[in-house]
Amino acid sequence: MINKVILVGRLVADPELSYSGGGIAYTRFTLAVNTGYGEHERVDFIDVVDFGVAAENHAQYLEKGRLVYVEGTIKIDSYEDKEGIRRKATTIQASRVTYLPDGRVREVDEEEEKPAINIRRGNNYTKKKKKR
């Protein structure tokens, strides 16, 4: 069986960093992903969650409007709402998030340089150096 998702989209808001009862960091964010073209174009809003050190880094460096590439798996949770109706929530559990260059100009504090591209594999988080 295969459960793999690849998305490229823009964050609709700044990521939200939280911690589980066990102290594990997790970040939630929503991507706006365009599909189709012309009169058939539409935008899907897809919820993404990430865990660990990468989640803390995403909360620090990602911002509303940022273009990102996400690899992960589909996770579907089932729950009962306040009225007792059975509901389902679909989320992408990220295994890799790459910050993409999008041509937007950003102000960067000289003391805290934002990475150009970040790649996450498992819990290892690496930073690619900028070409000069």
Structure write-up:
- There is one protein chain.
- With 132 residues, the protein is mainly beta.
- The chain has one domain (5-127): Nucleic acid-binding proteins (OB fold (Dihydrolipoamide Acetyltransferase, E2P), Beta Barrel).
- The protein is 8% helix and 52% strand.
- It contains 1 helix and 8 strands.
- The strands form 2 sheets. A 5-stranded mixed barrel has the order 1-3-4-6-5.
- The protein is globular, with a radius of gyration of 16 Å.
- Residues 112-129 have low confidence and may be disordered.
Per DSSP E runs of 2 or more residues, the count of β-strands stands at: 8
Q: Quick one: overall form?
A: globular
**DSSP helix fraction:** under 10%
**What is the gyration radius calculated from CA atoms?**
16 Å
Q: What structural class is derived from the secondary structure elements?
A: mainly beta
Question: What's a quick, concise take on this entry?
Answer:
The chain is 8% helix and 52% strand.
For this entry, give a set of tags.
two-stranded antiparallel sheet, OB fold (Dihydrolipoamide Acetyltransferase, E2P), 52% strand, 8 strands, 5-stranded mixed barrel, 132 residues
Compile the SSE list and pairings:
Elements (H helix, E strand, L loop, with lengths): L4 E7 L4 E4 L5 E11 L6 E10 H10 L5 E14 L5 E14 L18 E4 L2 E4 L5
Parallel strand pairs: 4-6
Antiparallel strand pairs: 1-3, 1-5, 2-3, 3-4, 5-6, 7-8
